[in-house]
Design brief:
Layout: E1 5-14, E2 18-21, H1 22-26, H2 33-40, E3 44-47, H3 55-70, E4 79-83, H4 94-102, E5 108-112, H5 118-131, E6 138-145, E7 163-173, E8 178-186, E9 194-195, H6 207-211, E10 218-219, H7 221-242, E11 252-255, H8 260-270, E12 277-278, H9 281-284, H10 291-299, E13 308-315, E14 319-326
Parallel strand pairs: 4-5, 4-6, 11-12, 11-13
Antiparallel strand pairs: 1-7, 2-3, 6-7, 8-14, 9-10, 13-14
Helix pairs in contact: 3-4, 7-8
Bound molecules: oxa(dethia)-CoA.
């Protein structure tokens, strides 16, 4: 019997209706459309406005989109992973709630926290459960309601982030398609450059932490940018070298949508043409754990069976890496 590999067999996505444009941000902070567009590539981002709705609201919708497209019964799903930096609540797993709401009655479920690399690391986790032969259907969701931790008076962060969710189903494949190789890394010395300081075990919530705006995301943009450019590009170049992939062999780059300049630098380092670089940052901004699956969901119709895709991401922690995957289906 040939070796089992873990293939993506369906994708789904969801973004909220409300569009926050660069123009709208001009009314909130001292910024302008030209600065945001040239420095980040972002034109608008989606914001979840529904009262009382958290990250699970979007994760459920992305999962339902996938389930409908793939035509499976949710009770067939063995495991649900939710990659997120903004779980519904601390302690109770968001994934467990998502599983119940979509009717995945036979699944176990847990959250995976690796900031903007959550989905990338989740791909490795999902694939391992499939490759071991233990499970047949693993649903990986990347979802974040970044607007819940953004200070809309801070121009250095509020222009970047948006809300959204994407999902991918992993199943066994005997044709050699699916995940081929991975290069994943982390460096905890970078945690102070991109963080939310309060609300965790080091600094529990107090009146002071709220007053000091410590429950919002903080980012030292320039430092993160420097690390993101070099590490994401190095990881993607490394994956290509290890697998003897030339620029001609790579069909698509699916990179974390944090900043168009970081994606361009990665593509440049890989030596690939612009047409192979899949981007939707101009419409959604940085949706943290949801960027990679939302790219897959938006461009699904262009992906062909056997296509070589290089994934790359960089995020808080620091966490980063690259994955080489062979696409397993032609969409209908
Ligand atoms: O997803 C997880 C990983 N995160 C990332 O990968 C994000 C990485 N960082 C970035 O994408 C970029 O650093 C930013 C988009 C956050 C900022 O772009 P930058 O080119 O690094 O700008 P900067 O922070 O070096 O600031 C340049 C100037 C500063 O003014 P001075 O000091 O030169 O006078 C800022 O005060 O731009 C100013 N500035 C702004 N101006 C207009 C900062 N934010 C804004 C703004 N509008 N929103």
């Amino acid at each position: 019997m040939s070796k089992l590999s873990a293939a993506i067999t369906a994708v789904g996505g969801y973004v909220p209706e409300f569009k926050m444009t660069n123009k709208m941000l001009e009314d909130l902070v001292d910024t302008n459309d030209e600065w945001i567009t040239t420095r980040t590539g972002i034109k608008e981002r989606r914001i979840l406005k529904e009262k009382g709705a958290g990250t699970s609201y979007m994760a459920i919708k992305a999962a339902e989109d996938l389930i409908k497209k793939r035509g499976i019964d949710p009770s067939e799903i063995d495991l649900i992973l939710v990659g997120t930096a903004t779980p519904d609540t601390l302690v109770a797993s968001t994934a467990a709630y998502v599983a119940s709401e979509i009717g995945a009655t036979n699944a176990f479920a847990f959250d995976l926290l690796a900031a903007c690399s959550s989905f990338l690391f989740g791909m490795s986790t999902a694939a391992s459960f499939i490759e071991s032969g233990k499970y047949k259907k693993v649903l990986l969701i990347g979802a974040d309601k970044m607007s819940s931790i953004i200070d809309y008076t801070d121009r250095t962060t509020c222009i970047i982030f948006g809300d959204g969710a994407g999902a991918a189903l992993f199943e066994p494949n005997e044709e050699g398609l699916g995940l081929q190789d991975e290069y994943l890394r982390s460096d905890g010395s970078g945690r102070s450059y991109l963080s939310m300081n309060a609300g965790g075990s080091i600094m529990p919530a107090t009146e002071e932490t709220v007053k000091d705006k410590q429950h919002f995301i903080f980012q030292e943009g320039r430092t993160v940018f420097k690390f993101a450019v070099s590490n994401m590009a190095d990881a993607a170049a490394n994956i290509m070298e290890r697998n003897d992939l030339t620029d001609k062999d790579v069909d698509w780059l699916v990179a974390h949508q944090a900043n168009k300049r970081i994606i361009d630098a990665t593509a440049n380092r890989m030596g690939i043409e612009d047409e192979k670089v899949l981007m939707n940052i101009e419409r959604y901004g940085n949706t943290t754990s949801a960027t990679l699956p939302l790219v897959l969901s938006d461009y699904e119709s262009q992906l062909k069976k056997g296509d070589n895709i290089v994934f790359a991401a960089f995020g808080g922690g620091f966490t980063w890496g690259s994955i080489y995957l062979k696409w397993a289906y032609n969409s209908k």
